[in-house]
């Protein structure tokens, strides 16, 4: 069983670890670069993205996080974590913030407005229901939530949300971007997968429904299986039947 790391700088990392525990999976807090070496996958939780970025920079985590993603290890970002994983973010504070990147999309940082405009909604999730069973919808909790305005061709859309033209008209944080960049039909993307990266604009860790966590765990276990399969391959040039070379001298592949 894969050990899942949860970035524990700020935000809802305890809730993610509790959700993993309910599924019988060990989640460990990650605060330092070297701790990433002990986990096979990583969750970047929701929180305040600017604060998380500053703390990550203070602990010199960005190089290690980028390497983790580039190595193809499964990473899931929820809310602020989604912003972290995007290749591009708009609607940021003055000066912007560092991103880990890897997810070919453009995210608007506070698309749905301020804290008081947080909401819940039932999202159609056919891919999740197909893989994990249960209802055809998932109750998404959006707290100062981002939204994906554009996604690359290799990004699989797992959930979107309709945005009426008159919704949140009292918020000036996203109206221009919504008019120019929102998906056709007045929808924005709120959950995606691209290879080893999963992203949700909402907070599954704040619900009793653990299907997103189960979906991610299966991504993690599949990756561990692939690594084990790769490490068991014997290079063609090594003659394992020869008694001329002691086992301790054979090359080790990890």
UniProtKB/TrEMBL annotation:
EC annotation from Swiss-Prot or TrEMBL: 3.5.1.2
Report the superkingdom from the record. Answer: Eukaryota
Matching InterPro entries: Class_I_gatase-like, PdxT/SNO, PdxT/SNO_CS
**Matches recorded under PROSITE patterns:** GATASE_TYPE_1 (PS51273), PDXT_SNO_1 (PS01236), PDXT_SNO_2 (PS51130)
The positions annotated for binding L-glutamine are: 47-49, 109, 143-144
Q: Which CDD domains does the UniProt entry name for this protein?
A: GATase1_PB
Q: Under the cellular component aspect of Gene Ontology, which terms does the record hold?
A: cytosol; glutaminase complex
The family classification in the record reads: Belongs to the glutaminase PdxT/SNO family.
What is this protein identified as? glutaminase
């Amino acid at each position: 069983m894969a050990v899942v790391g949860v970035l524990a700088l700020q935000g809802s990392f305890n809730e993610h670890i509790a959700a993993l525990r309910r599924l019988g999976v060990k989640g460990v807090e990650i605060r330092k670069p070297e701790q990433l070496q002990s986990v096979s996958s990583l969750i970047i939780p929701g929180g305040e993205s600017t604060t998380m970025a500053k703390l990550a920079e203070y602990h010199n985590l960005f190089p290690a996080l980028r390497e983790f993603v580039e190595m193809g290890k499964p990473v899931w970002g929820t809310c602020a974590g989604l912003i972290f994983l995007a290749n591009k973010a708009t609607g940021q504070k003055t000066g912007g913030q560092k991103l880990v990147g890897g997810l070919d999309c453009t995210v608007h940082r506070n698309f749905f407005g301020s804290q008081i405009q947080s909401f819940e909604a039932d999202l159609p999730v056919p891919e999740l229901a197909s893989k994990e069973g249960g209802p055809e919808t998932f109750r998404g909790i959006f707290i100062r939530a981002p939204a994906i305005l554009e996604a690359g061709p290799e990004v699989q859309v797992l959930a979107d949300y309709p945005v009426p033209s008159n919704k949140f008209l009292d918020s000036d944080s996203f109206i221009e971007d919504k008019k120019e960049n929102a998906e056709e039909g007045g929808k924005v993307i709120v959950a995606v997968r691209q290879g080893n990266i999963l992203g949700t604009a909402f907070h599954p860790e704040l619900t009793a429904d653990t299907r997103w966590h189960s979906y991610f765990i299966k991504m993690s276990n599949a990756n561990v299986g692939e690594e084990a399969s790769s490490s068991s391959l014997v290079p063609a040039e090594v003659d394992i039947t020869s008694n001329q070379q002691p086992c301790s001298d054979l090359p080790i592949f990890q």
